[in-house]
């Protein structure tokens, strides 16, 4: 998955794995939430839970992958068609987040132990949707941001000062590359035109117009 070429520059995902259980009309709904980045990773997690809960009647699943959420899958796993996987997927996709980003790289597995009372199609839809929503309520989330890394050539005498002043201004400073006759200061910023222009203005003032920025690469980071 090449996340560097996505249109989205940020999204939200899980900080770590989470488990939450609901009881609805004597049926147990155990929601497992995992942070995953590939479909293979998601399916390995599902396979592992099938072994752990081998005695459960249903292991219903939904997952969304990628900054642009291009991969979305769901499975009712024996429940009536459309009553489990799709409501679970909707609960992931429509999750309201304070920063107005979207939720991705997230797998939900709801393990159901039947309690002897049939819920009906509508009851199942509500139960599986609530199971995932409640699981997310109890999970810890974080935001991922795509950084664009710029390089600023500098003399050995000036490189450390540039690093310190840029860091003090709130920029993320990556490890500097020291060459024989110069240094390359690496600066990470949110991958947006506005942030790039702000950096250019700052560097122009810092270097009295002598500094020339070049783009090196992009990478995703977790914002703590």
UniProtKB/TrEMBL annotation:
GO biological process, one term: regulation of translational initiation
InterPro entries, per database record: Impact, Impact_N, Impact_N_sf, Impact_YigZ-like, Ribosomal_Su5_D2-typ_SF
Taxonomic placement: Bacteria, Bacillati, Actinomycetota, Actinomycetes, Micrococcales
Residue ranges of the TM segments: none
Residue ranges occupied by any Impact N-terminal domain in the UniProt entry: 25-134
Signal peptide from the UniProt entry: none
Name of the protein in question: YigZ family protein
Family: Belongs to the IMPACT family.
Superkingdom per UniProt: Bacteria
Annotated source species: Glutamicibacter halophytocola
GO CC annotation terms, alphabetical: cytoplasm
């Amino acid at each position: 998955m090449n996340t560097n070429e996505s249109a989205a520059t940020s999204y939200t995902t899980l900080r770590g794995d989470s488990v939450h259980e609901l009881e609805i009309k004597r049926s147990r709904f155990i929601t497992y939430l995992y942070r995953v980045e590939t479909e293979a990773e998601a399916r390995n997690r599902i396979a592992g839970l099938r072994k752990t809960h081998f005695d459960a009647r249903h292991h219903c699943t939904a997952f969304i992958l990628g900054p642009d959420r291009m991969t979305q899958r769901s499975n009712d796993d024996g429940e009536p068609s459309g009553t489990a996987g799709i409501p679970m997927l909707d609960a992931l996709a429509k999750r309201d987040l304070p920063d107005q980003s979207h939720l991705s790289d997230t797998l939900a597995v709801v393990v159901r132990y039947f309690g002897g009372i049939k819920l009906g199609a509508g009851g199942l839809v509500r139960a599986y949707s609530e199971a995932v929503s409640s699981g997310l309520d109890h999970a810890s989330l974080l935001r991922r941001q795509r950084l664009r890394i710029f390089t600023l050539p500098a003399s050995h005498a000036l490189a450390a000062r540039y690093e310190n002043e840029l860091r003090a201004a709130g920029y993320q400073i990556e490890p500097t590359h020291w060459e024989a006759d110069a240094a390359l200061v690496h600066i990470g910023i949110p991958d947006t035109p506005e942030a790039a222009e702000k950096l250019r203005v700052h560097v122009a003032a810092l270097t009295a117009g002598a500094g020339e920025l070049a783009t090196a690469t992009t990478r995703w980071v977790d914002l703590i």
